[in-house]
Amino acid sequence: MYLKKYTLIAFLAAFSWFPTRAQITIHRSYALYVQSFARYSSWPPLTGDFKIVVLGETPAFDELQKSFEGKVFAGAKGRVTRATDIAGISADACIIYLADEKSNLLSDLVKYTEGKPILIITERERLHLEGADISFTMVDNRLRYDLNLKDIQKRNLKTAMQVVTLAHETL
Fold it and tell me: Among residues of the chain, what percentage have pLDDT more than 90?
C-alpha cells in the first residue's frame, strides 16, 4: 500500500517537473535566437552599451541575461534590463523583447520606436504581421521565427542573409 502511494507521488512529481523543464528549455532557445539576431544584424554606431529591454515578465529574462551580460555585440557591451511599460524603455535600446503577456502593447510600441534602429522581437506567434520585426513560432514542435524584413529595413537595420533564409516566413 505504501509502496503504491510513494510510487504515485514520485510519478506525479516527475510529470509536474517536465513542463517546467520544457519552459526553461524554450526560453533558453529564445535567448540563443536573440543572441544570433544580435550577432548577425548591424546597428548604426553605438555610443553606450548594447541594450536589450525585456518588456513584461517572462522566464526568458534570466536566460537573456546569461546570454548577453558581459559579452560584446556591435562593438558594445551587452546589457539586459526589464521594463513594465513602454515609458520605461530606454531610448537607446537596440532590442526590445516583448513578453507574451504584454503583446497587446505592440501597436503602441511600434509607434513609440518608429524610425529608431530598434529591433522588436515577440514571443507570440504571427505578430510580425502587426509590426514586430521578429516573432517566434512553433512549427512541427520546433521553435522557429517569422521575419518582417520590410520593417527591419525601415528601421535602418541590416541583417545577414542567413537570418533571412532560415526564417519560417519572411515579409
Answer: 70
Q: pTM of this prediction?
A: 0.84
Q: What is the 3-state secondary structure (H, E, C) of the chain?
A: CHHHHHHHHHHHHHHHHHHHHHHHHHHHHHHHHHHHHHHCEECCCCCCCEEEEEECCCCHHHHHHHHHCCCEECCEEEEEEEECCHHHCCCCCCEEEECHHHHHHHHHHHHHCCCCCCEEEECCCCHHHHCCCEEEEEECCEEEEEECHHHHHHCCCEECHHHHHHCCEEC
pLDDT digits (tens, 9 = 90+) for 122-142: 999 999 999 999 999 999 989
Looking at residue 112, its pLDDT comes to: 95
Residue of 121, 119, 155, 120 whose CA lies nearest to 136:
121
Tens digits of residue pLDDT in 47-81: 889 999 999 999 999 999 998 988 999 889 999 99
